[in-house]
Amino acid sequence: MGTTSPTDAHGRTPAPDEADAGFEDESPVTDTTLDAIVVGAGLAGLVAAHELSLAGKKVLILDQENRANLGGQAFWSLGGLFLVDSPEQRRLGVHDSLDLARQDWATSAGFDRDEDHWPRQWARAYLEFAAGDKRRYLRDLGLRLTPIIGWAERGGSGASEHGNSVPRFHLAWGTGPEVVRVFREPVERAEAKGLVTMAFRHRVDELVLESEADSDRDGEDDRVVGVRGRVLAPSHTGRGIESNRDEVDDFELRAPAVIVTSGGVGHNFELMRKFWPIERLGEFPQTMLAGVPAHVDGRMLSIAEDAGASLINRDRIWAYTEGIENWNPVWPNHGIRIIPGPSSLWFDAEGNRFPAPNYPGFDTNRTMRTILDTGHDYSWFVLNESIIRKEFALSGSEQNPDITKKDWRLTLDRVRSSDAPGPVEAFKRYGPDFVVADTTDDLVQGMNERSRGPVIDHDHLVAQIVERDRQMDHSFSKDAQVQAIHNARNYLGDKIVRVQKPHKILDPAHGPLIAVRLSLLSRKTLGGLETNLDAQVIGEGGTPIPGLFAAGEVTGFGGGGMHGYNALEGTFLGGCIFSGMRAGRAVAGRSEAVGDEGTDMDRAEH
After folding, report:
1. Where in this protein does the record put region Disordered (predicted)?
2. CA torsion 355→361→365→368, rounded to 10°?
3. Are 199 and 123 within one domain?
4. Tens digits of residue pLDDT in 409-430
5. 3-state class (DSSP) for residue 584
6. How far apart are CA 558 and CA 29, in angstroms?
7. Does any domain span residue 165?
8. What is the CATH number of the domain that holds 439?
């Protein structure tokens, strides 16, 4: 049915058993007294439904997948949450502030388009949420955080360029499934009370429009009054597994408000290729792994566009550079992202070391462009056993069973262990991208056996490693990556759990040697439906479409792209939560008035 048990002989670590529950056939929807229809049962949809149910509103949630997929892509996530000036930061000696976060966000987003008006407003509001009510909002729902904060997207190229100046990646205790749970459970309680109805295997194909007179305007406007679509045949597949698209019936459902929370485009490579920014990132890769299940198809974008919705920033796509093929896949072309520490050496497909600041975990888009500029679509990490033990984390709830299952003993054992985490060891053993060797000759031979074209010259590769190793005899160095390693270890969190003590990669005491072939990995969509701060979808004329709202990744996590060109990480789940919250409250009539004046985000950019 789904993934196997935690005792899988090969070390596979599945998500909790609750993910695969609930394959019952769905009954026809008969309630005609709905206050809202939510299209998509991912995190943003659950948050919106939660807020609506708190207000006593009756909500229908539609999704093309079965109940086992409740929570969507958020369930598979590592559960990172972007917070500013949190108690967890202060306990680790991290001095953060809203002003510093605004500066980092503005320099990373690089807003430079007329259509960035609402994304700017969403960025401002989200940062205030991250520095204010976000932690309390989630804590009141029962979410807890781990004490160590990750330092993602470090930038490394100057205070006025992309990157987090300080660690802000707060990890949910329980990872993605726990983030989903704290919203899923109250929604299920509302379902038991009759406030929420969930209709799975219901694929929306059209937004229903009706003309209405608008007393404030000349003429009539189209209002969204419901949805039409097809009921799909029952599917008994587990979470994330590709399901059938057999049509068995049609439906039309009406409500005063429709909230689109259908997610991004991460498994629709045709759509990604269409909008891929060649001039900014390089040619679209011939080989790309899928970081999301097959149902993440972006269908609702064109459906909303057909209803008059404005789509913006569709070329702002967030793909990762450190993808590895999942040796035990759940969905087609399944890739996993390595979340690396800063010590691995990064080489292109021909064996040339990348220049600064293209180091592991520093600047995703800049490194993406550097990789694709070589004319190849993959690269290599070269490291050793000591580095992989401490610095390799795999993104995803199923790859971190200790934290996902909230087992402090296992978590502490992993931190104290001299071995790599079990899921990492499984990839070393079974993953097709990994080369483990005792000698440089065997290492390079293994790399060339996995090449998708170029042949790496042994002497050239080794010479570059030796040059770097000679910089390790002192606590200072002219090598910028070595400097970055020393800087990272000045942060207590990195020193404890994420960054290995500096040493020579070719030192036999730290062996064996390891090389990892890295492919590009699809993941998030940073553009989409343009929305105002009440999550109303903006029409082509620049005014809201009555009755139509949207939240989550389908809106670029808010406004049509609140991240701009780059993400600071830990901001995707938070974007779904924040936009889903605002959409639910707006439809419920509990939204706050928002001004349209200049913002701190605008000022930070100047």
Report:
1. 1-27
2. 60
3. yes
4. 888 887 777 778 899 999 999 9
5. helix
6. 30
7. yes
8. 3.90.700.10
